[in-house]
Structure formats: structure tokens, C-alpha cells
Amino acid sequence: MENNILEVRDLCMSFFNSHGELPAVNHVSFEVEKGKTLGIVGESGCGKSMTSLCVMGLFPQPPGKIINGSILFEGRDLTKLPPREMHQIRGKGIAMIFQEPMTSLNPVLTIGDQIMETILLHEKVTKAEARKRALEMINLVGIPMPEKIFASCPHQLSGGMRQRAMIAMALSCKPELLICDEPTTALDVTVQSQILSLINRLKNQLGTSVMLITHDMGVINEMADRVIVMYAGQIVEQAETAELFAHPTHPYTVGLIRAIPLLDTEVEELNVIPGSVPMLYELPEGCLFAPRCPYATEKCLHQRPDIAEVSPGHSVRCFRYMSGWEGE
Questions:
Q1: C-alpha to C-alpha distances, 151 to 115, 143, 148, nearest whole angstrom
Q2: Nearest to residue 146, comparing CAs of 168, 129, 173?
Q3: Domain span holding position 56
Q4: What is the crossing angle of helices 127-140 and 159-171, to 10°?
Q5: In a domain, 191, yes or no
Q6: What is the pLDDT of residues 284-321, one digit of tens each?
Q7: Could you tell me if 199 and 182 are in contact, meaning their C-beta atoms sit under 8 angstroms apart?
Q8: Could you tell me if residue 63 is left (phi over 0), alpha (psi between -120 and 50 degrees) or otherwise beta?
Q9: Does residue 153 contact residue 109 with C-beta atoms inside 8 Å?
Q10: What is the band of 2 on the pLDDT scale with cuts at 50, 70, 90?
Q11: Angle, nearest 10°, between helix axes 127-140 and 111-122?
Q12: In the 8-state DSSP scheme, what is residue 320?
């Protein structure tokens, strides 16, 4: 569709090791609309970050390999591009903010040098012009004293400042798509709010599309226009944000929403989803969520459901919403 900046179709990426083939991204399909925010939510180990690394072409190869599907960015299939062309798209067409800026930034280069490097790599500008652009970006993300930050190394900045510097670097070439992989990890609550507000403001100001990856349903509700819920490498539910929170359908989505603490309600015990996400080398035979699901039947334990539409724009991977359900 012309309105989509990114279209992922039936994407499968597996790791190959002594355990055999491990499906990290399993038949995943979604779109990111121009100027909109797509939220990807789920627990750690559900395939959120690996999906984004597939889009960027940054997953480890080997042992990882895309074995099926396509990733269409502005009509071009990224899975078929040679490394040189993909290198040109990273940073210019698609940029990424990683989880932990301290491990993503080069510790021996100044912030200014790292932002300038991105600009000089993708733009035909002089060093003076790149420096001017870098200072503008540092100022744009709300960091005081841009000149001082420009000359600072990452270890001299706080966590919030480093994350803002990462955002400045990611946006320095005005990418069409910005992937934010848990951008508020390890930040205190006040700084988290500032970073999320900054991403929203810059999205509106620059017209950038956003893929926001997080395990926080509260952040998704505040930031995303549309949501996909991932579990063990699969999409289990997908809908507009308002629809998802008003009518959560998959038991996993319901569990995630119920786990959000409510400030105005007194509870003796927080709601949790029992168990944990399975390891890739010991996935269940049937529905991947069945061992943790309160509604699982014998069919769920031995067969895997397909994803199906339950209402316009709202799809779910669960036998309860398919014909032939024999549960409660």
C-alpha cells in the first residue's frame, strides 16, 4: 500500500546450532504506516528485538538466516539487497535507537564525532556543515549546552543524556523510519517520560514513522497508533491501540494488560502470567502459549492455531476465536 513505509510479509528467521533450527521470528507480517507509530509488545525473549534487527539486517549471520518472507521498505525488498545497498539505507532510510546507549556508543569518540560520522557517511557535506548539523540535532533533542555535549565522551554523560545523544544520532540524516528498541531501559521514571515525549514530538515535527519496541503496555497505550503482540517469535494479536485495550482478545494480551498496576485500586497481590516464555529449542508442540494459558484444551496442546481476523483490522492467533472451538 502507498500509505505504508514498511511492509513485512511472512518473515521467518531462524538460528542454526547444535539444537538444530531455532525459529526466532516465525511467520511475522505487519505494516508501518507513514507518520504513524507501531508498537511491538511482549515479554523478553518473544522476538521483538530480533524482528527489528531483521529489518535493519543486523542479526548475526551466521548462525541466523532469513529463510522465508520479505521486508519491503518503500517498495524495495531489504532481504534481497546486497550489503553495500543495505549499508546506505541504515542511518539514512531507517535508523535505530538501541536499548542501552552505553554499549551502543563508541566509548573513545566524542558525541559530536559520532553524530558527524553518520552525517558524513550518508550526506555530501563538508566537515563544517556536518558539525553544524550535529550541533543542531543535539539542540533539537533538548540537551543544554550543545557545544559541551558535542565535545564530551559517552562516560561523561548521564543515562538520559546518552539516550538523547543516541536519538540525535539516529535522526541526524532525517530517516523515514525510526526503530526504538526499548529506548527507556535503565532510565528513571522521570527521564523515561521525557524521552518518550521527545520521540513523540520529533515524530510529529519531522514526519518520521516509528517502530516502538517495549514490554511496557502503559507506554504502548500512550505512544502507539497500532499494536502487535508477540509471543515466542509469533504475532498472537494485532489491532489499533484503542481497539486492543478496549477488547483484548488473546489470553496473553489479556494477561499483559491485567499485569499493569492500577494506582487507584487496592490489591493484595499483583496479577501475573504464570510460567515463562519457552526457549527456542523447547517450543511446545501445539499453541506456543498453551502451557501458560488458563483456557487451553487438548486441541491447543497438540495443534498450532493460525492467525485470523476477529473484526476489521483486529486479528488474533487463538482457537477460541476460530470455528470448532470446544472449550468453555
A1: 11, 13, 5
A2: 168
A3: 4-93+173-321
A4: 130
A5: yes
A6: 999 999 999 999 999 999 999 999 999 999 999 999 88
A7: no
A8: alpha
A9: yes
A10: confident
A11: 120
A12: G
The pLDDT assigned to 323 comes to: 56
Helices (H) and strands (E) in the chain, counts: 12, 12
CA distance 166 to 154: 10
- Number of structural domains found in the chain: 1
Give Cβ neighbours of residue 22 (< 8 Å, ≥ 6 apart).
14, 15, 16, 280, 281
Strand order in the sheet with 226-231: 94-97, 177-181, 209-214, 37-41, 226-231, 234-240, 314-316, 308-311
Contact 118, 94 (CB under 8 A): no
Grid cell digits, residue 182: 526499548
39 within domain boundaries: yes
Which of 275, 139, 297 shows the shortest CA–CA distance to 205? 139
Residue 226, phi then psi, degrees to nearest 5: -140, 155
Beta strand pairing status for 226-231 and 64-73?
A: unpaired
Residue 28 maps to a domain:
yes
Return the CATH number at 288.
Answer: 3.40.50.300
Q: Does residue 284 belong to any structural domain of this protein?
A: yes
**CA distance to 43, 141, 212, 277, 299, per residue, from 270 (Å):** 17, 36, 26, 19, 30
